[in-house]
Amino acid sequence: MALSPQSPRHLPAWEKLERYFEDAKGKTLSSWFKDPGRTEKLSFAVGDFNVDLSKNLIDPEITGIFAELANQAGIPERASAMVRGEEINVSEGRAVLHPLLRSPRGMQSGVLSGGIDALEKIQGVLERMYSFAREVRSGKIRMEGARRVKTVVNIGIGGSDLGPEMVYGALQNKSDGSLSARFISNIDPSSFIEAVRGLDPASTLFLVASKSFSTQETLSNAAQAKKWLLKGLGERGVLESEGEAVARHFAGICSMENLQKAEEFGIRPENVFEMFPFIGGRYSVDSSVGLSLVLSLGPETFERFLEGLRAVDEYFFSTSAEENAIIQMAMLNVWYADFFKAETHAILPYNDYLGRLPAYLQQLTMESNGKRVDLAGKEVDLHTGEIYWGGVGTNSQHSFFQLLHQGTHLIPADFIAFANNSNQLDEEEEEMQERLLSSFIAQSAALAFGSGEEAAAERRCPGNRPSTSIFGRVLSAYTLGELIALYEHIVFCQGVVWGINSFDQFGVELGKKLSRRIFSLLSDTDSNLSGLDSSTRRLIEWYWEHRS
Length: 548
Ligand code: F6P
Known about the structure:
By secondary structure, the chain is of the alpha/beta class. The chain folds into 3 domains: about 10-20 and about 30-75 and about 320-505, Rossmann fold; about 100-295, Rossmann fold; about 505-545. Helices cover about 45% and strands about 10% of the residues. The protein has a 6-stranded mixed sheet with strand order 1-2-13-12-10-11, with helices on both faces. The longest helix has 23 residues, at about 425-450. 6-O-phosphono-beta-D-fructofuranose binds near residues 157, 159, 160, 282 and 367.
């Protein structure tokens, strides 16, 4: 693919935005809202969601300039290059094919991987996942002592953890309860200890999810799991052969180039589910990385999840930039980051089941677009990425909303809610649901319009603080799929405009390397610390002085 990235600053649409920004700075949401048609003009239907952009610092006509920017930056061409399987992840020479994970059955993608159509490969793995899950769920596949699996424990980190953990949290109430899931990611030993607390080893299935099958955290936890399993089975008198027990109680999720490592761990090749090189970790929740979801929620629920993702893919790829809420949201993010110099972006789901959504989106957005050089390796001349953070409403109203309302930072926020609760509610609970939604609606209005001039200074909320409201009918596997695809494509579009590679993550490597070096020093108080900076040296010495 031609590599002539240019700073968006030189695009005619950017220059238009610069002029427009001068004008916009003097306006307020209160003044913009004098236009009675504003909300209608800035509301978009995306799948099952109503996306209301009207409380953003834009005039409706700017959507036209945003569309020009998107087109001039080449979003349509890059999107086509992505689906054609071009290696748009240039630094790693890889295609980026996560939309294929949810393509309809029986199609051909036209993208070959090892001589076979990539879609055929993806769907082959999906079928194996479904059939494995059906056999585990029906009790055909049993653990040592002929026990049925009651708990599946996913061991993985980053993209091999955050997606399944978030989705499980969001949809756990849809499970028939026959099989629950737990997630272990951190190398903090407490993480493993707490995750297996109360579990019966004989009815526990571990999934070791690691594309590289070499991530320190995952391998350490997997080794702990093996130890815990064998000890527990031995104590219950159901351990016949260690190798057989590991083979029964572990499945693996990794790339085929690392299959041997999984086998060396003791996992049978037929229980390894392929992760493809063309699917990035943070884009992998709907791949084999979702095996814990297929097992715990069932293949049918996972299928609905894929359908939701697909629906928003279709919307994204077929809707013109001006009408495309995803492109408009992405351009808004660029608008705030580069014109208003906003540093952060808040994610505020008014739904307890989406408690892990901010953490999931942190990896998706920050690992993707936290880049300082363009596709050609040249330093960018503007701000990329945004710092994503957030928490559930209403809890966050009682903690950090003070700063949103009266602080000095401009923080664009995404409010996310569903009209209906995912559970059957009684009358009192219906009232609680309406109170929840009242807060969802009220908070964005309070941020936008403030409290008026009359209040005392310390009480006054100045308003003019932007937000987007994303309102769905009900949280389900399908609508969650839609929501994830929406954010995946937003990240992609921002990356294209900034001219960066949203699909590598070399920044995380240095810390890993240093930690390996420090690990080799920590255990031995005679280690030679010369050559280390004084702070690192002192931290190590302090550890030596204080460890018990
Ligand atoms: O350290 C970052 C990272 O490489 C992520 O991009 C990835 O999702 C995670 O680690 C886990 O990697 P793996 O699946 O290879 O264990």
